[in-house]
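Appendix B: complex inputs.
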Amino acid sequence: DIVMTQSPDSLAVSLGERATINCKSSQSVLYSSNNKNYLAWYQQKPGQPPKLLIYWASTRDSGVPDRFSGSGSGTDFTLTISSLQAEDVAVYYCQQYYSSPPEITFGPGTKVDIK
Amino acid sequence: EVQLVESGGGLVQPGGSLRLSCAASGFTFSSYSMNWVRQAPGKGLEWVSHITHTTNTIYYADSVKGRFTISRDNAKNSLYLQMNSLRPEDTAVYYCARDGGTGYACDYWGQGTLVTVSS
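Resulting structure:
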């Protein structure tokens, strides 16, 4: 089974400062057939369902502010919030798809707070 | 506007059964694969099951394989999850989520329905 890890478990960042979250997969999620990484990032605020931020590891979903960016390939990925805003306080999850056997796995989550 | 509305949750005894439904609107349901994802109280997200738009491919998490069955009715714009042999560890909010066709990323989510397995 694929294992997804995220670091740190939580972080506190001052308003306007950068927040960086790491996600690591035990197997590569880069598919040579289309050269795409099957890695997504979500934001979840208390009492709400998750919201898709990033897919294909680095493509922002429609309407997502450009302070959110994703990078990485293969097994190591990063979500960066370039200038933290108060409304960004949330838990952030990475998610991967692996084909053999077919499974979708979420990381354990990273909680982001204001310092 | 895309909407996904789950229903069917509730309190059930261990070993019991429950059927969840998800009513979809605002998009061509028959063109999209769908997922069920759950979240135990205070815990992270756990993918449960995936079904393609034509139902020709279905995946399950190992934790529910053999006990849960995903299905859909494209004529009724509805997704279902039949849950049998329920265990206390199945207690969670169950979300219906649309696969946006971008690497199995879920681009729309319902508000969820709570399933509690307890005696």
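Chain A touches chain B through 28 residues (CB under 8 Å).
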